[in-house]
Amino acid sequence: MSPPLKVAIIGAGLIGPRHAQSVLSNPSTELIALVDPAESGPATAAKLQTQYFPTLSALLYSSAKPDAAIVCTPNHTHVSISKELLSAGVHVLVEKPVSESIESGLSLLRHARQPENAHLKLLVGHHRRFNPYVLKAKEIIDSRALGQIVAVNGLWATFKPPSYFSPPTEWRRSRASGGVIPINLVHDIDIMHHLFGPIIRVFAEATRKQRSNPPHDANEGAAITLRFSSGVVGTFLLSDATPSPHTFETGTGENPMIPQAATTAATGGGGVADFYRIFGSDACLSVPDMRRWSYDGREEKSWTQPLALETFDVVHATPFDVQLRHFADAIRGSVRLGCTCEEGLRALVVCDAVRRSLESGLPVDVGLELE
Ligand SMILES: NC(=O)c1ccc[n+]([C@@H]2O[C@H](COP(=O)([O-])OP(=O)(O)OC[C@H]3O[C@@H](n4cnc5c(N)ncnc54)[C@H](O)[C@@H]3O)[C@@H](O)[C@H]2O)c1
Question: What residues does the Gfo/Idh/MocA-like oxidoreductase C-terminal domain cover (predicted)?
Answer without folding.
Answer: 138-366
